[in-house]
Amino acid sequence: MTVANLLRACLLATLLLVNAACRQEQKLAASDVVLDMAVSDLLVGETTLTIRVRDNQGNALAELGTLSLRGDMDHAGMTPVLAEADTAVEGVFNVPFEWTMGGSWTVEASLSLPGGEVASQVFRYDIDSPSEDQDMADDADPADAATDTAGTNSSAYLQITNRGSDDIVLISASSAVAAAVEFHETRVTDGVASMRRLEELIVPGKGEIELAPGGLHLMLMNLTGDLQLRDNFVLELTSSAGQLYRIDFHVIEPPSSDLVDSVYLGDLVFNNRWARPASAG
Fold it and tell me: Is the pLDDT of residue 227 over 70?
């Protein structure tokens, strides 16, 4: 190899190394990413969320990571709706999604970038219910509509086991962290979810009930203070026989892990007691 060829080879190798280093330094940062979302349908049921990913100059981005979506209702008793996609065409994700109930929603889109950062954006939507659900809405308690305000409510969950032979009827609940605590239930009819207030909870003899997202739950209405992660608070349940049950709850991010610190009060055993974090507004 001549000296000139050797110099050219060295120069080419140097340029390749410099280009590789530049590409390494130009890892996409979350602050450089813009997420836009469009919705095909704002009616309860299945829909498609279209998320466009671009840089600050409006250019579509390629080689994107996984996109995760989380939809939450302002009504804290609903189960979050989760979706995920790992394929984009010219910087556009089309993700199947489902609005499970009419009302106000927030959808958080989180995109994992090749450099390890996560770009996220929160979007808000008001979802309408089909007209045939009006009868169900008419049956709902007016207090629900008056108090289901974003940022003022939370919900609490637990499992209750009755070791005795007789049914135990819980007729009221209260806590210092909320102006009111009510028994609520999520109902799904023809794929459409709705809420209703219950006057009582019955724990059957030698049986158990579970209060969990998407089903029975305790609604903490008009919070008197913020419920922050790792906080604890006391909630009281009263039975039709006049028995008072004072139990502590843990504020954690859903979904809950199994909380094994059982509380034994009379014939009842209280397990997996947790509540969602929320702001008092």
Answer: yes
Q: What is the CA radius of gyration of the chain?
A: 26
Report whether 79 contacts 155 (CB < 8 A). Answer: no
The H or E element spanning position 8 is: helix 3-25
| Burial (CB count <10 Å: 0-12, 13-18, 19+), residue 87 | exposed
* Cα separation, 229 vs 220, whole angstroms: 16
Cis peptide bond upstream of 80, omega within 30: no
pTM, two decimal places: 0.55
Contact 191, 43 (CB under 8 A): no
Helix (H) or strand (E) holding 233: strand 232-239
Placement of tokens 């509540």 in the chain: 275
CB 75 within 8 A of CB 197: no
- In single-letter form, the type of residue at position 152 comes to T
Question: What pLDDT digit, counting tens, does each position of 93-136 carry?
Answer: 889 998 887 778 889 999 988 878 899 988 988 888 764 434 43
Are 102 and 191 within 8 A, CB to CB?
no
Is pLDDT of 75 > 70?
no
Q: For tokens 């039975």, what's the residue?
A: 239
Residue 252 CB burial class (10 angstroms; 0-12, 13-18, ≥19): middle
